[in-house]
Amino acid sequence: MVKEHQLKVHNSLSGQKETFEPINLDNIGMYVCGPTVYSNVHLGNVRTFMSFDMIYRYLKFLGYKVRYVRNITDAGHLTDDGNVENDRFVKQSKLEKLEPMEIVQKYTVDFHKVLEKFNLLPPTIEPTATGHILEQIALAEKLIDLGFAYEVNGSVYFDVEAYNKKGLDYGELSNRNIDELISNSRDLDGQGEKKNPVDFALWKNASPAHIMRWNSPWGDGFPGWHLECTVMSTKYLGDYFDIHGGGMDLKFPHHECEIAQAKGSNGHEPVKYWLHANMLTMNGQRMSKSTGNYILPMQLVDGENDFFEKAFHPSVVRFCFLQAHYRSVLDISNDAMLASEKGFTRLVEAIKTLEILQPKNTSTVHIADLEQKLYTAMDDDFNTPILIAHLFDAVKMINSIKDNSEDISAEDLTRLKTIMHGFVFDVLGLQTENTNVNSDKLDGVVKMLIEMRNQARVDKNWALSDQIRDQLSALGIQLKDGSEGTSYTF
Ligand SMILES: [Zn+2]
């Protein structure tokens, strides 16, 4: 049963918030572009996947059955020139002296580990590009037959001009004008085999040095990146499905190419609602390995980094990310994380307080109003910051009941618990296990031990200082020495 609601989603295709009306009621199809598994997953990508995890969770919470497909790109992710030296898998395998498929395995495992740490639910299908080579060849052949693609020297390209001549409007998602695109790119050198610089590869001929290769009607080669998403989304969700998600940076050209491939082969739009999640910055700047403004997701949790004074519980990171709307840029910093930790702790304390509240005969609080506000926030294009603001109204309410300045009936208390658990655990995906909440005494004891260890270090009693650190570590309490003193995490 799907709950009565008025969900609106921002559709990138129309640029508007639209009422969400599933193609098949009770059975939603959602496709999200997954990772290219040639290196550790970026924190920014974790944010994107977390945004769609929250969306997936809310749809399920409303009672929808959702088929959630998120692919693994394990081949064919080339830069546009098609040079084998630029194949990320081949490049990384040389660097790490591993087989390309060992690179794939290593970083697929890493990806799953990181997402599990942040409590993301797995998709219901997680297909791989290499598992769908035959379907990709078949789609390229179909596009050639229909006059939307052409073969040159064993490679196949999508013919953007032919597509547009049929009035199919390449560039509709990112509002790009095809004529401008063509004239802007005409001057670029190295047009190579393509008829037109905006044409994109469906299949690339493999040079003898290329290890990851498959046989095709055009000789040995490998698929272009855009093709796999069209093949896997339509294979599992049908050629018209509800939601396609991904990072904003994928709008062009990746998603534009997906639309062209699908419309070229089926004659109609493949997706009803295109949803795009925004990026993550750190200390006001783009995260990038080359500038050094960069942190791996796990480093935020284990505290092994130079940007944050302490380690943070994965749920604190999650809470911080969800305090921004998924379509807004989110900036993280030491201060922002500390503030999130405070907020999260207040929320968790209130949820624990719920268990000790004593019901009265009547209520002075309005649970139905609160519940309505929580749903309204999420129904408005998954507005998690507003949802969280209302959850803090609930925190105030819970504390007032605890202080006896408000009363709650037994029936309302049960309802309040259900709502709070539903939105905090099921929708936001926060976890309260292993947080040091409600453990003021333990906190005091650990701080006392830290002070004793500090004194031991002043006294140069290294044996005692190491003993304190090691024994705490054996209990799962990690100390971290920083410029601001010693902090600890569970
Ligand atoms: Zn994709």
Could you name the key traits of this structure?
490 residues, alpha/beta, Rossmann fold, Isoleucyl-tRNA Synthetase, Domain 1, 3 domains, four-stranded parallel sheet, four-stranded antiparallel sheet, 15 strands, 45% helix, binds zinc ion, ligase
Question: How would you portray this structure in words?
Answer:
Helix 10 (314-322) crosses helix 11 (334-354). The chain has a four-stranded parallel β-sheet, with helices on both faces. It starts with 7 loop residues before the first strand and ends with a strand. It has three domains: 8-277, HUPs (Rossmann fold), CATH 3.40.50.620; 281-427, Isoleucyl-tRNA Synthetase, Domain 1 (Orthogonal Bundle); 439-489, no CATH class. The model has no long low-confidence stretch (mean pLDDT 91). With 490 residues, it is an alpha/beta fold. It has helices at 43-61, 88-96, 100-117, 133-145, 160-165, 178-186, 225-237, 251-266, 297-302, 314-322, 334-354, 367-379, 384-402, 410-427, 440-458, 462-474, and strands at residues 8-11, 16-19, 27-32, 65-70, 149-152, 155-158, 201-205, 221-223, 241-247, 271-277, 280-282, 285-286, 330-332, 478-482, 485-489. Strand 5 (149-152) and strand 6 (155-158) form a beta hairpin. The chain contains 16 helices and 15 strands. The chain binds zinc ion (ZN). Zinc ion (ZN) binds at residues 33, 229, 254.
